[in-house]
Amino acid sequence: MRIAYLGNDNETPPQPRPLGFLTTGSLEFAMGVAKVLVEKARELSPDMFRLFVKESREAKKFAFGTPYEQSSLPRFHIREAAEAAFGRDNWQSGLKSFSRQKGWVQEAATGATDASAFKDTIASMTIATITDGYQHTVSDLLDLAGVAETPDQPEGTHDFIQKYSATGIVQAVAEGTEYPRTGFATLRTTAPEPTKYGEIAVLTLETVKSNDTRGFLKDNLDVGRAVGQHQLEAFIRVLTGIVNNYTRNGSTLNTYLTSGAWINKLTDFDINNGPAEFDRITQLVDRMVHPVTGKSIKVDPNAIIAVGNAVFRTKSTVAATQIRQESADGKIVTIGSNPLDGYAPVKHNANIRRMLIAEGGYTAALADTMVFYGNFKEAVQLRQVEPFTVEEIGDLGKEWIGFSQDLVYAVKGRWWGSYFINDPLQIYQAYKAS
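User: That's the sequence. What structure does it adopt?
Assistant: Structure tokens below.
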């Protein structure tokens, strides 16, 4: 988080107070994690409090108790937070009143500070655990895709227009004459309508009374995991060609072709033949020409994605420092450096193999020979309305959830967008069909 400071250049920005158990350590832990958090929530603004929680977790001063945290760390407990906020003897009545408040925190109301501290404490825990679940699910595959933001267009398809010189030729200009003006040819790529996917995690009065912190944390994690899994699968479907949504100038075409408008697919690829097989892919690139300019293209690969049994062999092929060529009788003919050494990082995700078989119609044997190669950031893009977001329930819903279901708190995680092929000439699929 960046904290803006407006003042003279020669002034020193005011520093926030030291964050409690980052400085005093075990002394504050004697109070219990929840009590420390409630006290800090009373002292700090909501933004500073969440920064405090984030930094303290990163410093491994305490844990929420998720599977991604060190199990020996002191843990947060929901009921302890309620007791710290509303009092050991009055927490149940205070919590019921809190859950039924229309605004949850009314500054003029008695006990507003207690309610605010409890809410901020629960919010920091909930938002962090949902984010944990999301981040541990999406893997680093999503980082390969490019992002095309359309925040003001949450509905309908969207056209991305690229312009190219109509001639593609820079002409000689004689002395004293004008430079020629060029016309432009366009290539229109249409991105599909974005989808909004999310789930809600709730904290019930029963959960607080029974102190079922672990169950509540699991619910939070599951929300993050579910949202992350949905987004990851949407990316994989477009990446692998399970969903073909490349639309150029109004025509929808398959992502991977062995003939026709372009050739970016090999069906007799054998990773067991070593670096020479990747040379066959680069030869496809060398033969590719741009559909508008008619010029050669350039592909700067940012990854090789290997599937199933091809993962180990691909990593060994790319990471080898030298290659040896042998004659038919087994004698070494030549030894040379590996032309693929450091070529591109090899990525892998088990969801790809599962989806190729379950949704793509490939056999397991064929999927285990498959690799994808290219500049995925140029090839596959996310039309993003909003990035992954964790959002608390608004004022209009708070009165309803407290009255109808004894819900103390609710939060949702969501992603909003759609993946699409931006440039199929930047991506290549290869496998052994037989």
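Residues 213-240 form the longest helix (28 residues).
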